[in-house]
Amino acid sequence: MAEKRYINRELSWLSFNARVLQEAADETVPLIERLRFLGIFSNNLDEFFKVRYATVKRIDLAGKAGKKVLGGIKANKLLEAITKIVIDQQSESLKILDDIQTKLKSHNIHVINEDQVTPNQKEFIKNFFLSKVSPALVTIILNDLPEMPSLKDSAAYLAVKMVMSDDTEPSQGISKIINRKVNEKRYVLIEIPRNIERFVVLPEENGKQYVILLDDLIRFNLNTIFNIFSYESLSAHMIKITRDAELDLDSDLSKSFIEKISDSVRDRIKGDPVRFVYDKNIDSDTLTYLMNKMGIDSTDSIIPGGRYHNRRDYMGFPSLGGPELQYEVREPLPIPGLILQTSVLKGIAEKDYLLYTPYQSFAYVVKFLREAALDPRVKTIKITIYRLAKISHIASSLINAVKNGKKVTVQIELRARFDEVANIRYAEQMQEEGVNLIFGVPGLKVHCKTCVIEREEDGKLKRYGFISTGNFNESTSKVYTDYTLFTADPAILREVDMVFDFFETNYKVNKYKHLIVSPHYTRNVIYNLIQNEIDNARNGKPAGIRLKLNSLSDNGVIEKLYTASKAGVKIKLIVRGICCLVPGIKGLSENIEAISIVDKFLEHPRVFIFENNENPRIYISSADFMTRNLDQRVEISCPIYDEDIKQELIETFEISWNDNVKARNHCPGIENPYRENDKPALRSQFALYDYYLRKTDIQE
């Protein structure tokens, strides 16, 4: 029975990535967008191996039984299952890529390789290589090295086999001195430069656009690279290694926290390999040589792939062709009643406002901080930061505030995975400018997203602030859906200020009447909210639970939802990614429906709606229902008190729930069946934009 109650977390994640692959295969999706979904699929897989596969591998190597940790599957069996699924998915992704590139030809867009270069393109490619690529190349001859150099995590390399020719003309110079013996095989690695665009757009010919991958442009110039050698033949095939991304923090008390994180990120390049991907057409002797040299063994995931790796770069495929090849760009809408051209603080003082990006403009967050930075009556600004954009107006606004005499406190999470380097850079910059930095709570990541300011009004300090489900990041706000509540509610913001007190005095655990704060309270409060619905259902009162999450994997919460289902509580779950709960099991979860929506934007908000006997209790949150969010991170779930905003959240949830175009039903396997019904087609992300457009039109 235990195996039927839960879906393994890792396998559920692979099911989510299969939904991304479905988007790449969907012929109703514009062709270049399909290429970009292939890039997202590949990028997701890289991160999965760095984190989740690496974790399972560590459990296996430690000799733990694995059942309790891995939901009924032993670690070694799970590693095998993951590798099999990934090989199948990779094979499918190659077929999809071939199909897309074939279809692009009908739009006069041709992705060519080194053997398809036309005479007119040769000079451009040679010049491009000599001026931009050759100076950036790192080329390593392996034969003379006693051991394999440390390959960069997730970097792509061309593995070159050079079969040497007979040295019969020593007078021809240095190339003959370098050679050893006839038919000697020399093995070389060429690192594909990451500071050059992966896709090189070639000059247009006869109304046709041509693109060559940087890998093939290098292959075309192999003779130039190795012109000092005499060889019979050259062959080049791509390989890639993925390493364990776990950070190992130094215990040296003399180092600052920034130094420890910086050192740990640098050490990550020496992490244990967990995946080796190679071109399935590589020569067997080359493959054997490389695997022996790198010490790859059976506990690593060895994936035969296609000609190209790092397909994550397809996320940046150039915008070529007509508008039909990409999604229509729809400008983000204003928040009705909150005017960017005037004081947003004045507007927020009068009522709460809800922002839903990317349907509405993230500029409201930036405007809030810029106004606070300039307003002479604003005295303090406190904000949490998890992931910043590469060029962050948020950071510049905070620095501007310091220069204007404000006291600015920033809790910045240096351990935000894969964004450590960017966060360290901004932390150092803000620290230099006088921002008071807090580096979290020992043993806990700070994942909540909130800001509170204090403004002097009538001789007293009044608080304004915002609480969000997502990061304060201009880049991701264009593609991640997230809610942000702007409020001047003194009760809520007093408790936000208490959270900042906790950052600085970790030993003191505050009590909250309004916010739900992890790690101390979220689990019990969520249990109590679910129990209230159970009690209402048993007493014949209206009961129901609606949740929108990124992930649902905590067994305790799942069991509580199963209990609610058995009590007759109707439960609607929109879970984008991992869902370990099994819906629709008679006698256990028959009152639970669960869907996932994967479409143009990444579904990112967390919303909790509890019916509460027709008086809904509604929260927006930074927390998913995963053990780490409940027990091992600082998270904030914020109640919604404004009746108009409550209704807006219910209506937008229902629009998403009624999706029958991009919604898939969660199920134990990885089939990801699309939800089908007899209702008119409703694509929720498009419908939500129209919903906010109507609100804007009504306001005008």
From TrEMBL:
<keyword id="KW-0808">Transferase</keyword>
<keyword id="KW-0067">ATP-binding</keyword>
<dbReference type="InterPro" id="IPR025198">
    <property type="entry name" value="PPK_N_dom"/>
</dbReference>
<dbReference type="GO" id="GO:0046872">
    <property type="term" value="F:metal ion binding"/>
</dbReference>
<comment type="similarity">
    <text>Belongs to the polyphosphate kinase 1 (PPK1) family.</text>
</comment>
<feature type="binding site">
    <location>
        <position position="44"/>
    </location>
    <ligand>
        <name>ATP</name>
    </ligand>
</feature>
<dbReference type="GO" id="GO:0008976">
    <property type="term" value="F:polyphosphate kinase activity"/>
</dbReference>
<dbReference type="InterPro" id="IPR041108">
    <property type="entry name" value="PP_kinase_C_1"/>
</dbReference>
<feature type="binding site">
    <location>
        <position position="387"/>
    </location>
    <ligand>
        <name>Mg(2+)</name>
    </ligand>
</feature>
<keyword id="KW-0460">Magnesium</keyword>
<dbReference type="Pfam" id="PF13089">
    <property type="entry name" value="PP_kinase_N"/>
</dbReference>
<keyword id="KW-0479">Metal-binding</keyword>
<dbReference type="Pfam" id="PF02503">
    <property type="entry name" value="PP_kinase"/>
</dbReference>
<feature type="binding site">
    <location>
        <position position="576"/>
    </location>
    <ligand>
        <name>ATP</name>
    </ligand>
</feature>
<protein>
    <recommendedName>
        <fullName>Polyphosphate kinase</fullName>
        <ecNumber>2.7.4.1</ecNumber>
    </recommendedName>
</protein>
<dbReference type="InterPro" id="IPR003414">
    <property type="entry name" value="PP_kinase"/>
</dbReference>
<dbReference type="InterPro" id="IPR036830">
    <property type="entry name" value="PP_kinase_middle_dom_sf"/>
</dbReference>
<feature type="binding site">
    <location>
        <position position="417"/>
    </location>
    <ligand>
        <name>Mg(2+)</name>
    </ligand>
</feature>
<feature type="domain" description="Polyphosphate kinase N-terminal">
    <location>
        <begin position="6"/>
        <end position="111"/>
    </location>
</feature>
<feature type="domain" description="Polyphosphate kinase C-terminal">
    <location>
        <begin position="515"/>
        <end position="685"/>
    </location>
</feature>
<dbReference type="Pfam" id="PF13090">
    <property type="entry name" value="PP_kinase_C"/>
</dbReference>
<dbReference type="InterPro" id="IPR036832">
    <property type="entry name" value="PPK_N_dom_sf"/>
</dbReference>
<keyword id="KW-0418">Kinase</keyword>
<dbReference type="GO" id="GO:0006799">
    <property type="term" value="P:polyphosphate biosynthetic process"/>
</dbReference>
<dbReference type="InterPro" id="IPR024953">
    <property type="entry name" value="PP_kinase_middle"/>
</dbReference>
<comment type="function">
    <text>Catalyzes the reversible transfer of the terminal phosphate of ATP to form a long-chain polyphosphate (polyP).</text>
</comment>
<keyword id="KW-0547">Nucleotide-binding</keyword>
<feature type="binding site">
    <location>
        <position position="604"/>
    </location>
    <ligand>
        <name>ATP</name>
    </ligand>
</feature>
<feature type="domain" description="Polyphosphate kinase middle">
    <location>
        <begin position="121"/>
        <end position="317"/>
    </location>
</feature>
<dbReference type="GO" id="GO:0009358">
    <property type="term" value="C:polyphosphate kinase complex"/>
</dbReference>
<feature type="active site" description="Phosphohistidine intermediate">
    <location>
        <position position="447"/>
    </location>
</feature>
<feature type="binding site">
    <location>
        <position position="480"/>
    </location>
    <ligand>
        <name>ATP</name>
    </ligand>
</feature>
<dbReference type="InterPro" id="IPR025200">
    <property type="entry name" value="PPK_C_dom2"/>
</dbReference>
<dbReference type="Pfam" id="PF17941">
    <property type="entry name" value="PP_kinase_C_1"/>
</dbReference>
<feature type="domain" description="Polyphosphate kinase C-terminal">
    <location>
        <begin position="344"/>
        <end position="508"/>
    </location>
</feature>
<dbReference type="GO" id="GO:0005524">
    <property type="term" value="F:ATP binding"/>
</dbReference>
<keyword id="KW-0597">Phosphoprotein</keyword>
